Amino acid sequence: MTRDILAFIGGGNMARSLIGGLVARGRPAASIQVAEPQAALREALAADFGVGVHATASEAARGATTWVLSVKPQVMRTVCGELATLAAETRPLVVSIAAGVTAGQIDQWLGGDQAVVRTMPNTPSLLGAGATGLYANPRVTEAGRELAGSLMSAVGLAAWIPDEAQMDAVTAVSGSGPAYVFLLAEALQAAGVAQGLAADTARDLANQTLLGAARMLVETGDDAATLRKRVTSPGGTTQAAIESFEANGLRRLVDEAVAAAARRGRELSEGS
Ligand SMILES: NC(=O)C1=CN([C@@H]2O[C@H](COP(=O)(O)OP(=O)(O)OC[C@H]3O[C@@H](n4cnc5c(N)ncnc54)[C@H](OP(=O)(O)O)[C@@H]3O)[C@@H](O)[C@H]2O)C=CC1
Ligand SMILES: O=C(O)[C@@H]1CCC=N1
């Protein structure tokens, strides 16, 4: 087995974000192999990042010490079945990024006694601004934890989650979370246009506002409520908007949306 070869099984949206983030931060492209059945996606990964690409999982996994299982939850069982013989022979560190699928299910589908790290990254990993939760099963050694942790911390924040049951909450907050922010961006842009701004002006102002606010959240050390209050002049424009958000149940909407995502994560595990 060649040391330090990383195999991505599935070369879709999330794998692309991780691969792009890793290569941009100095991981040699030659140390990454990807299995992706769609020729167009496969060729784009090779062209954009210089990684090795294969049509089948076993071709990419052969010779790799770490496997990143990055297929949809619904096909994970089949893909693990294809890899079980190789897993028994080579005992790789198995890193799953799938929503809902448990470390125990992956271990079982790969034939048992496998070191499995269940993770939940997000697409800002592409820019080194990802947020990943990680849970390790008892077969993962300290070296395995370090390896998985360093893989994810190379592309952003990595947080170990002690109780696997909390991984559905991680998925619902940070795995899916970028989509909530993009939805807010869409709504803010549309609202700016409705108030008479040109579309590109509304887009630029909304996007830069989200960037600036996000940077304040992580760089000032002040909490979100404090930062919000500093924008909200008594009797001013922000107060009018915040009161409208509160009266229309924004907090309840967010709570229900995150609960729906967590519930879907649990269903994905039960349906596998
Ligand atoms: N997108 C996101 O923001 C995040 C996704 N995830 C998780 O990442 C995983 C992938 O999601 P995402 O990237 O969005 O999905 P995609 O559908 O974009 O990517 C999955 C890819 O795997 C391919 N594939 C299917 N079967 C195999 C196989 N046997 N061997 C190799 N590749 C195969 C699919 O091809 P085909 O389409 O032809 O089936 C597809 O191109 C999911 O489990 C998801 O829960 C986790 C965090 C965030
Ligand atoms: O939507 C999904 O199921 C995946 C998991 C988290 C983000 N995307």
UniProtKB/TrEMBL annotation:
In terms of PROSITE patterns, this protein maps to: P5CR (PS00521)
Query: Pfam family of this protein, just one?
Result: F420_oxidored
Enumerate the spans annotated as Pyrroline-5-carboxylate reductase catalytic N-terminal domain. 6-100
Q: Which residues form the signal peptide?
A: none
One of the entry's Gene Ontology molecular-function terms is: pyrroline-5-carboxylate reductase activity
Q: What family is this?
A: Belongs to the pyrroline-5-carboxylate reductase family.
Name of the featured protein:
Pyrroline-5-carboxylate reductase
Q: Which organism is it from?
A: Arenimonas donghaensis DSM 18148 = HO3-R19
